[in-house]
User: Fold this.
Amino acid sequence: MIVDADVHISPTPQGGNSISTDELLRRMDHAGIDKAVTWLQPPYLRDEIDAGNAYVARAMREHPDRIVGFGWADPNLGVARAIADARRAVEEHGCFGVKLNGAQNGYPIDDPLRAMPVIEEIARLGTTLALHVGADAPDHTHPSRVATIARAYPELRILVVHMGGAAFHDLSAAAIGVAEEHPNLTLVGSAVRAIPILRAIRTLGAERVCFGSDTPFELMHVELAKYRALLEGEVSAEERERVMGGTIARLLGIEGRM
Assistant:
């Protein structure tokens, strides 16, 4: 089973880097992807996050064998609102977790007044937290901030999306180092160079690293080909299966759901 651990859809696609559920499914079929961990795609109307979360949830309900939906919360809209959005995404929409993006929404992901109360609620819900962790906004999404969260909530499952990439330079070494110290972190190697991905697998093990394409900001079938070429001759068949889907499937409890 191949699972893409980082894709975005939008209820109001405007062309270019913006796609609907139907277009995502077309790209998955073209690439040969079985399932996709799916969240909202920026840019979005910030006052319509709940409608966007509902769109992701509808995609998941209509295609339960393909779409693994996550909610989205933005504490800049108000902490109480973000907590409510996270709770609704999990309890009402049935999402597998909640994503926070301090780069897009402009806040430190470990901000004690804005972000941490929302993360506390996500931890209380017993679900998975996904974090944009990239060099595109190092002040807000540096791996050291992930360490603060991981220390505060050691039982919380955390996806480190982009593993410090998402820019021409990257913070992947720092992300790998933080993950070494905190076993509740799993790295998603999307929008990051090939060598850091391989370094993460060799340092942390295949059970801590996931394939992700960052669709539609990258081409899904091209990113899949990149991973296949990267892993060929470098890891065992079992390790390859883990990176390409087994790790994220076990983390989210979706093994065998086809």
Observations:
- The radius of gyration is 16 Å.
- The chain has a mean pLDDT of 95.
- The first strand starts at residue 3 and ends at 9.
- The CA atoms of residues 78 and 114 lie 8 Å apart.
